[in-house]
Amino acid sequence: MLCSQLAWAGTDTKVDTQEYLLPNGLKLIVREDHRAPTVASMIWYRAGSMDEFNGRTGVAHVLEHMMFKGTDKVKTGEFSKQVAAMGGRENAFTSRDYTAFFQQVERSKLNAVLELEADRMAHLNFDDAEFLKEIQVVMEERRLRTEDNPSSLLHESLMASAFMSSPYRHPVIGWMNDLENMKAEDARNWYRSWYAPNNATVVISGDVQAEEVFRSVEKYFGPLSAHALPERKPQIEPTQKGMKQVLVKAPADSTQLTMAWKVPKLEAGQLEDYEPYALELLGAVLDGYDNARLNRNLVKQERVVDSVGVDYDMISRGPALFTVSVSLAKGKTVAQAQASIQKALKEVADQGVLDSELKRIKVRILSGQIYKRDSIFGQAMEIGTTEMSGFSWRDIDPILERMQTITPEQVQAVAKKYLVDDRLTIGVLDPQARKTSTSEKVGK
After folding, report:
1. Catalytic residue among 64, 90, 117, 156
2. Contact at 8 Å (CB) between 383 and 29?
3. Residue ranges of the Peptidase M16 C-terminal domain (predicted)?
4. Nearby residues of 74 by Cβ (< 8 Å), 6 or more positions away
5. Using CA atoms, how far apart are residues 73 and 118, in angstroms rounded to an integer?
6. What is the pTM (predicted TM-score) of this model?
7. Using CA atoms, how far apart are residues 176 and 156, in angstroms rounded to an integer?
8. pLDDT reported for residue 372
9. pLDDT band at 32 (very low <50, low <70, confident <90, very high)
10. Which residues does 158 contact at the CB level (< 8 Å), separation at least 6?
C-alpha cells in the first residue's frame, strides 16, 4: 500500500489522498473530502482511440456504449436504472487516451456501484442483436456531432492532415465506413483485450474513509483475474517537413480558420522542462481572458473575426498541437485573418510579454485550480486524467507550482521556437449554401 497526503494549493485545507495497488494490478486512489455526504466513483481504463488500428476505428467508443448492455446478473438497461433508483447520476466517456465510467451517489450507495462496476469489468455479456441496435445509435451520433457539424468536420480533417503515423489522426468516434463494417465480435475482442484490472484505475473522491473503500474495492475487484495486455507500439510521429493545408467544403454560416503547430508536451519524469508550461501560459496570453491579445486585437480592434479560441493540452499520451481557431467576420478573407494571427504571434516572439500580464494569468490559473477542487467530481476527474496520461496524482501540485515559476522570457522563447511555418497545419472551412428541404414552404 502506498499512502500520501496532498495539501490543496492556496488553501488551508488538508485533503487525504491515498493510493493502493491490488495483487491483480488494479490501482485504487481515494481522495477524502468530508464537506458533503456524497461520493464520486470513477473507473478509468487506459484504452482509447489511440489504441485502435485501421479498419477498427471507433471501437473504443462503441464498447463504452456496450458496457451498459448487461451481464448475467444485470440485464440490458438495468445498470442505469439501478443507479437512478439510488438517487445517483452516471455516465461514461471515451477519449483518445482512455475510457472512463462514473457514478455520483450518496455515500452509503458506494458499495452498490462498486459491485456493479466490478461485475461488468469481468462479465459483460451482449448478443449480436443488441450490438446491431447500438451501432446504429453510434452512427447517428457521428452524423449529428460530426457530419452535420462544420466545425467538427474541419477539426477531423485537420487532425488527419496534421498527423501521419500517430493514431491521433483518427476521430474518437471512428470513421463512418469502419462503423458500418464493425461486428459484435470486434467490440468483444476490444473488451477481452483491454478491460482487465491491470489496465484500470479506480478513483473515489468524497465523504469516505480510505481504508473502508480499500476493503470494499478489494472485496469486489480483488477476485478478478489480470491478463496480458496487447503490446503497445510507440507510433512516433515523424518530423514535419513543411507547412500543410487542408480545405473543407461544408454547409456553414461563416468561414473558419484553424492554425495548428506541432509542439512538445510534458513528459512523465521531466516535470522541470519549462517549454510545456510556457506554451500553456502562451495560450492564456493569447486567449486566457476577455481582453487577451487575440480577442482584443482580432475581434475588438481589427474586427476581422467574430470569435477566437486557443487550445493546447500539455498532458496527454500522444503528441500535442497548439491551435488557434477563428470564425471570420462577414466580408473578411482567410488571408486577412491569417495575417492578423501571425502579426499577433510575431509580436510575442519579437517583443515578449509583460511581467504584469503573466502574473495576472498565473493568478487566474491558480484560482481556477482551487475552484475546480471545490467539486467532488472535479477532483476525481483531475486525478483520473492525470493518471491516464502516464503521470501520478502526486504530480498535480508540483506541476502547478512549476507553472508559477515560468518567466516572460521563456514564454517568448517557445513562441519564437515552435510557432513557425514548418510545424504548421492550416485548416480552412469554405462555407457552402445549405440545402433547402423540398417540404419547406416560403411565404403563405
Report:
1. 64
2. yes
3. 182-362
4. 82, 116, 119, 120
5. 12
6. 0.92
7. 12
8. 81
9. very high
10. 246, 258, 260, 425, 427
How far, in whole angstroms, is CA 408 from its chain's centroid? 28
What's the rounded Cα separation, in Å, for the pair 214 and 201?
13
Residues in the chain: 444
Region of 114 (left: φ > 0; alpha: ψ -120 to 50; beta: rest) is alpha
* Residue 368, C-alpha cell as written in the block: 481556477
Q: Please state the three-class secondary structure of 166-188 as a single string.
A: CHHHCCCCCCHHHHHCCCHHHHH
Strand order in the sheet with 89-94: 2-7, 14-21, 27-32, 200-206, 38-45, 99-106, 89-94
Q: At what angle do helices 355-372 and 396-403 cross, to 10 degrees?
A: 160
Residue type at 47? A
Contact criterion met (CB below 8 Å) for 298 and 308:
yes
Question: In sequence order, which residues have a C-beta less than 8 Å from that of residue 142 and are 6 or more positions away?
Answer: 58, 173, 174, 176, 179
Query: Where does 94-250 have alpha helices with state H?
Result: 110-123, 128-142, 150-162, 176-180, 184-194, 210-221
Are the C-beta atoms of 39 and 207 separated by less than 8 Å? yes
Report long-range pairs for 302-305 (Cβ below 8 Å, ≥24 apart).
302/340, 303/329, 304/328, 304/329, 304/332, 304/336, 304/337, 304/340, 305/329, 305/332, 305/337, 305/340
Q: How far apart are CA 286 and CA 305, in angstroms?
A: 14
Q: CB within 8 A of 264, min separation 6: which ones?
A: 273, 275, 276, 279, 320, 418
- Categorize the per-residue pLDDT at 6 as very low, low, confident or very high, splitting at 50, 70 and 90: very low
Q: Which residues pair with 303 in a beta bridge?
A: none
Section 409-417 average pLDDT: 98
CB 59 within 8 Å of CB 182: yes
Q: Report the run of H or E that residue 82 belongs to, with start and end.
A: helix 78-85
The letter for the amino acid at 437 is S
Q: Are 39 and 206 in contact (CB under 8 A)?
A: yes
For the segment 212-234, the average pLDDT, to the nearest whole number, is 97
Q: How buried is residue 230: exposed, middle or buried, by Cβ count under 10 Å (0-12/13-18/19+)?
A: exposed
Across the chain, what does the average pLDDT equal?
93
In percent, how much of the chain has pLDDT > 70? 95
Is residue 64 annotated as a catalytic residue, yes or no? Answer: yes
> What structural domains does the chain harbor?
2-221 (3.30.830.10), 244-432 (3.30.830.10)
